[in-house]
Amino acid sequence: METVPSSANLPVPFFRRLDVIPERTLYTARPGILAVPSGAGSVVFFIGLQCLTLIGFLYAIWWPAPSGPHDWEFAISATSILAALIIAIFWLMLRRFPGFLLAVLRSPFISISVTDRRLLWTLPWMKGPLMEIGRDRITGALTGALDRKGNGPAAVILIPGDPCADFDGNIHFDRLPDAAAFVSALTRG
Fold first, then answer.
1. Which of 56, 64, 122, 129 lies most in the core, judged by the most C-beta atoms within 10 Å?
2. pLDDT per residue as tens, the chain (189 positions)
3. Are 66 and 74 in contact (CB under 8 A)?
């Protein structure tokens, strides 16, 4: 074994294994559009209703076409005010909830992998994992009712007090492909 020099200021001696044991992948899934959170459809529906209202306002402002300088002034100023309000709302949402919006936008591209050492969330354009949980922090896994394709909800049960867990100590997946294989891979390792 190779030892790091004492000048490295490590609290304990560090040993590097020369016979590296490769990590085995037990499960990999790329849920795609299934990874979008459950309430995203409702949000898109209500945003669509707001867009229809905006189109109605723009139609009322610009029809019939402005003919005089005062009409042009009104149409341009009203459109500018609407655009400023929309930009302000988006800016406020981005400032207040940047993590949620970012998570929803990149969720269809996330790949979930279970290895014999860890649980990984990866994105194709990132070198390192988005999130990683060691197997020592996982105490079990559960699956819910599955459809005929095997897709369904699953939950990873973490040790009490884990910072990645939600209020009940789990990480939930709404619509995971082959959820039974996911649970089996987590309980097998």
1. 122
2. 455 455 555 555 656 666 678 889 999 998 887 777 777 788 788 889 999 999 999 999 999 888 999 999 999 999 999 999 999 988 888 888 888 778 778 888 889 999 999 999 999 889 999 899 999 999 999 999 998 988 899 999 999 999 988 888 899 988 889 999 999 999 876
3. yes
